C-alpha cells in the first residue's frame, strides 16, 4: 500500500469534520519517521475536499536551550521531560483547542534561541493536525480525537539524517534513543494509537 492509499484509508476512519466542529488529529512518531511528509499529503487530500486545516508542529514550541541542556539531569531526561514545557502546553494549547478561535503560544526561534508570543488562529470548522514526537504522553493524549503513529525502524530513521548529524551518534545514543526507548516502554504508543502506519 503506497502513501496515497494509506491517507485514503486514514480518512475513512477519522471523524468527519462537521460544520461548526473541530476534529483534532495527532500524527505521532519518533524522529525522522516521516511525520512532516505525511502531514503534507493530508493537507493536499483535504484541500480537494474543501476542508480547512490548521497544522501545528510541536517542535515549534520547545523551550530555550538553557532549560533543556546542562541541567544536571541525564541527557535523555532533558529531551523527554524538559524539551517542552509540557504543563504549559497542556494549559495554553491543548485545553483551548476546541473552544478558542485563537491561541497565544510561546514559539521558539532557533536563530535567537528565544521564545516569542505568537497568535495562532483556529477556524470554527477545521481539521486540526498536530504532529510531533511523544504526542501520546499522558498529559496530552486525551485531547485528541484520533491518533496516528508512524512506525519506522531506528536504522532507517537514522539513515535519513545528514552525514554530519550521523557523525554525532553519541548524542543519539545518550539523548534521543534513550528517550525514545522510555516512551515506547512506558507509554506504548503503538498499542494506544487508533491507526499505525508502517512508514
From TrEMBL:
Protein name per UniProt: Phosphoribulokinase/uridine kinase domain-containing protein
Species this chain originates from: Bacillus mesophilum
InterPro entries xrefs: P-loop_NTPase, PRK/URK
The Phosphoribulokinase/uridine kinase domain, residue ranges: 24-198
NCBIfam families per UniProt: PRK07667.1
Gene Ontology terms for molecular function: ATP binding; kinase activity
